[in-house]
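User: quick one, fold this
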Amino acid sequence: MTSRAKINPDIMKWARIEAGYNKKNLPKKFKDKFEKWENGSVEPTWNQLRDLSNQYKRPSAFFFRTKVPPKDKMNFIEYRRQDIAFKDKTPKLIYNIRRSKFMRNNYIELLQNMKLPIINFSKNKFESKNIVEFALKIREMLSVSLSEQKEWIFNKNKGKDYGHYRFINEWKDTLNNLGILVFETENVSLNEMKALAIYYEYYPIILLNGSDNVNSRIFSLFHELVHLMLGESAICDLDEETKKEVFCNAVAGEFLVPSKDFIENSIVSDYNNEEWEDKHLFELSHEYGVSKDVILRKLLNINKISSDFYNSKIRQWNKEHSNKKKEDSGGSHLNNKIKYNGKMYSRLVLSAYENNVINATDFSEYMGLRLKHITKLETLLFGD
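Assistant:
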């Protein structure tokens, strides 16, 4: 006789809903069984429970709990796209959000166990409807001058980093210093989410879409930072034209490319042809470490180009971008793990393991890595 697992049917149903699954998107092997498991008329076999645990991203022991967990406060995140409701998020996005909150809890617990200081981000909350004032506040808060920002085009070998990887890494480190945990998603569609912010007084989260290109992720960092400074959580599609999103986009653009400096830039001030050549747009984008789209928007704002030219260029570049591979499809396994988990989190977990604060099992669970990777991970995080 096949041994069966005496799970709690209510927990089984709760786990499915929280993971974002229904009869339409459940794998075929579960579609004819899950309703019987959830109403208690049939108990799953142990093999079925293990398969389901993997699908819902919950340990098998979770399904034997006696009480349903309290409602997740993440439900209060504000959606900017009106055609998406919380219950309609894909299982992949739900899992990435849940994992980011899991990592935050781990991070704070490790800080406490290691008796390290905890940063209160709420002191950085700021309210202003003035775009320039808000951008200047961010510049002051981060203590990064525009001249220092422009130096980031150069890599360690003094060559130019046209991929802007140094820019995004430097900006992430800077936000980490404010007590913001920056994570990236894995295998989440850009059609569903560009980035999100989850506000907490201590260690708020910015979750970027790991499939997005570097320049878009740089812009998203500061778009989401504005949300956090306003003391709010939000999932954002940066193409939306709601009043709040327009403001966040404007502040991010003004911070990354300050209007006063841009207008006085020799390329901008000396160029009088309305149809700009790509080489000049590229040069400006590399100077500030932003996309050509941001530069084009700044030129439109100061009447250096027409709306027709702006729209035609955006259409051209969107077509070119659609033919490129996703950002997270390449790179080494370890580098991708650091990208998804963030350097600040990864460094603390590694330090906790090396100081016997957590064991090998904890390390693997916290990082999603095996112990055999530790030596190389240490080199990537701390250098030779």
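User: anything notable?
Assistant: Residues 74-86 have pLDDT under 50 and may be disordered.
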